[in-house]
Design goal:
Elements (H helix, E strand, L loop, with lengths): L1 H9 L3 E6 L1 H4 E2 L2 E2 L1 H16 L3 E6 L2 H9 L8 H24 L4 E7 L7 H16 L2 E7 L13 H11 L4 E6 L20 E2 L4 H8 L10 H13 L4 E5 L5 H6 L6 E3 L8 H8 L5 E5 L1 H10 L8 E5 L7 E5 L5 E6 L4 H7 L7 H5 L13 E3 L3
Parallel strand pairs: 1-4, 1-7, 4-6, 5-6, 7-9, 8-10, 11-13
Antiparallel strand pairs: 2-3, 9-10, 11-12, 13-14, 14-15
Helix pairs in contact: 3-5, 4-5, 7-9, 8-9
Length: 377
């Protein structure tokens, strides 16, 4: 996969770099030396013409140390309060580190619902584009102070994937505390083997990831694989590498093989299709037959009522819904032209029977191909 890596990094104009809690923390507090090292590497890349967006964990660790706590509290309100205290300290350290290289930074705190609204999604993208045009480094974190389960991204691995898609970046680099994806947890099993490249995330890969937990952060290796699935499905590569390795970003951009490289699908999704497929929360589900699945996956067709065999949930026209094949595998997400009640009436019918059944026919398609995103393998 060396050719893939070399060609990939040679063509990168915009990258998202995610730094995890396990990399940023030291003795229950922030690892200032690591912050300075990563910041310096980012500045060197910026000076070479690469735009960098940084997704950084570490607010909780900074807050724990600043408040003199022995460990992170268990109660959600207290954890949110600790994160609020720590976020200021985290940004202060980044500001000092980037100032050494005469670079300015901007803090952006997001919640999941900030990207589900198309208007706010576009606004966030415009803000980030403006910051990059000003040569300001955006530093993004989840807004832990106000996040509740319904609006959480879940972890910064997922957040970094969403930002990569939002900004149509050329690569996502996920810096963690181990060298990449292994066949087993290398901290426990001496015979664990590093997987240098992954071309397609299959069940075997997911199994490897599930056996490697995260120690301090919210996301272990499984959440990183989920992030890789999102971005590679959209045609964007991802690398998992060890963030504490000296000059790791510079080495990656020089073509050196470090960590695990996730090979992207050949076709890159449009920004709108990324929004539909990965930002919207599905309101229901359509079960489709083998013929419809083949038409969607192999021929890029729209979903017609004739291929639908079941409807789950209640939703209006315009809602985002998932669709799955006969094996129960989720294939993708799309925006429906009909409500769940109407789809139940027309499913299995040819398009020329829609008006006869409903009394009207605004569309032939239940989901037009321009409004659906294939998210499965």
């Amino acid at each position: 996969m060396k050719t893939d890596r070399t060609a990939c990094f040679n063509s990168v104009k915009r990258a998202v770099v995610k730094v995890g809690s396990n990399v940023l923390t030291k003795d229950q507090g922030l690892n200032i030396g690591l912050i300075e090292s990563v910041s310096g590497q980012i500045c060197r890349l910026i000076d070479k013409g690469v735009e960098i967006i940084l997704v950084s964990s570490g607010a909780m660790a900074a807050g724990v140390r600043k408040l003199g706590l022995e460990r992170r509290p268990d109660e959600i309100p207290k954890r949110q309060a600790v994160a609020a205290v720590g976020q200021a300290g985290l940004m202060m350290e980044y500001e000092k580190a980037f100032e050494l290289y005469e670079k300015k930074v901007a803090q952006i705190l997001l919640t999941g619902d900030g990207l589900t609204s198309r208007k706010r999604y576009l606004n966030a993208r415009n803000t980030l584009h403006t910051l990059l045009s000003w040569k300001v480094v955006p530093i993004i974190n989840e807004n832990d102070t106000v996040s509740v389960e319904e609006i959480k991204f879940g972890d910064n691995d997922n957040l970094s994937a969403m930002i990569t898609l939002l900004m149509n970046a050329d690569i996502l680099i996920n810096l963690t505390d181990i060298d990449g994806l292994y066949t087993k947890d290398p901290r426990v099993f001496p015979d664990a083997r590093l997987i240098p490249a992954v071309d397609g995330i299959r069940k075997e890969i997911e199994k490897f990831a599930s056996d490697i937990p995260g120690a301090l952060g919210t996301g272990g290796m499984s959440s990183k694989i989920k992030a890789a699935r999102k971005v590679t499905t959209a045609g964007i590569p991802m690398v998992i590498a060890k963030g504490t390795k000296p000059d790791i970003l510079i080495k990656l951009f020089s073509g050196e093989e470090h960590g695990t490289f996730f090979v992207p699908k050949k076709e890159k999704l449009t920004n709108r299709k990324c929004w539909i497929g990965f930002n919207l929360k599905p309101k229901g589900l359509l079960r489709i037959d083998k013929g419809a699945a083949k038409a969607l996956l192999e021929r890029g067709k729209s979903l017609l009522p004739s291929g639908i065999v079941g409807v789950e949930g209640e939703f209006d026209a315009g809602a985002a819904v998932e669709f799955k094949n006969g094996d129960g595998e989720i294939i993708g997400t799309g925006l429906v032209n009909y409500s769940s009640a109407d789809i139940r009436k027309i499913m299995g019918l040819q398009t020329n029977k829609i008006e006869e059944q409903l009394g009207y026919k605004p569309y032939d398609e239940v989901i037009h191909r321009d409004n659906l995103t294939i998210t499965g393998n």
